[in-house]
Amino acid sequence: MVDAVKRTYTSTLRARQARGTQEAIVAAATRLFIERGFGPTTIDAVADAAGVSRKTVFTSVGGKVELLKVALDWLLVGDEQAIALAERPEMRSTLLESDPVALLRGLARIVAGINNRLGALYEVLIAAAGQDPAARVLLDELEEQRRKFMSELVIPRLRELGALRQDLRIEHAVDIAWLHTDPHVYVRLVLDRGWSPDEFEWWLHEAVCRQLLAPS
C-alpha cells in the first residue's frame, strides 16, 4: 500500500515537472518568435531562454513548427488544458443563446479575446508559411478549423433560430463569419491602426449582425 502511494506521488511529481518544463519552453518560444520572427529563432535560443537543453526542447515539445502549433493552441483557449474551444463553458453558453444578436455579441467577445492573445503570434505563422512548407500546412489547418467551427456550429445555430438573411447562401454566411474572425483582421485594426480591443469587439458584432442576420 505504501509503495503504491509512493509510486503515485512520484509519477504525479514527474508529470508536474514535465508540464512545467513544457510550459517554460513554449513561453520562451512564443516570446522569441514574436521578438525575432520564425526564421531567426533557433532551437538553441529557445533552449537557452527556457533554461533547458536542446534535446529537452525536442523531447518535450518538438521542432520549431511544433513549438508554434502548441503555443497557438494554448493561446487559442487561454490555457494549457486539453479542452476544445467548443467545449469551453463560455462558448457553450454562447452557442446555446436563443437570441441571435446576443449569440453574435458573445461570439464577438470571445473572438476579440482570442485574437488579443494570439494575434501577434499568428502574424509570425503567416510570415513563416511563405518560407516553410510545414508552417504552410499548419496555417492551412488552423484556417480550416476556424471555417469548420463556423460551418458546423455558428451558422447552423443561427439557421436553427431562423435568424439568417433569406438572400444569403449558407456557404457565403460561413465565409463572412470566417473572414471577420480572422486574427489578421484584428492585428490590422488593433495592433496596426490603434483600435482598442473593445472597439474591435463592437465593430465585429455590428458587422456580422448586419451581414448575417435578417432584418428584425
Distance between the termini: 67 Å
Global mean pLDDT: 93
Secondary-structure element pattern, one letter each: HHHHHHHHHH
Task: Report the sheet with the most strands, covering strand number, pairing sense and barrel closure.
Answer: none
Gyration radius (Cα, Å) is 20 Å
Quickly give the CATH architecture of the largest domain.
Answer: Orthogonal Bundle
SS-based class:
mainly alpha
| CATH fold-level label of the largest domain | Tetracycline Repressor, domain 2
Total number of strands: 0
The best one-word shape is: elongated
In DSSP terms, counting alpha (H) and pi (I) runs of 4 or more, how many helices? 10
Proportion of residues in extended strands: under 5%
Q: Give the low-pLDDT segments.
A: none
- Helical residue percent band: over 70%
GO molecular function: DNA-binding transcription factor activity; transcription cis-regulatory region binding
DNA-binding region: 42-61
InterPro entries: Homeodomain-like_sf, HTH-type_TetR-like_transc_reg, HTH_TetR
Pfam families: TetR_N
Describe the structure in your own words.
The termini are far apart. It is built from ten helices and no strands. It has two domains: 1-62, Orthogonal Bundle (Arc Repressor Mutant, subunit A); 63-216, Orthogonal Bundle (Tetracycline Repressor, domain 2), CATH 1.10.357. The mean pLDDT is 93. With 216 residues, the protein is mainly α.
List the helices and strands and how they pair.
Layout: H1 2-36, H2 43-50, H3 54-60, H4 64-77, H5 89-95, H6 100-129, H7 133-160, H8 170-180, H9 183-192, H10 197-212
Helix pairs in contact: 1-2, 1-4, 2-3, 4-6, 5-6, 6-7, 6-9, 6-10, 7-8, 8-10
Domain HTH tetR-type: 19-79
Pfam families: TetR_N
GO molecular function: DNA-binding transcription factor activity; transcription cis-regulatory region binding
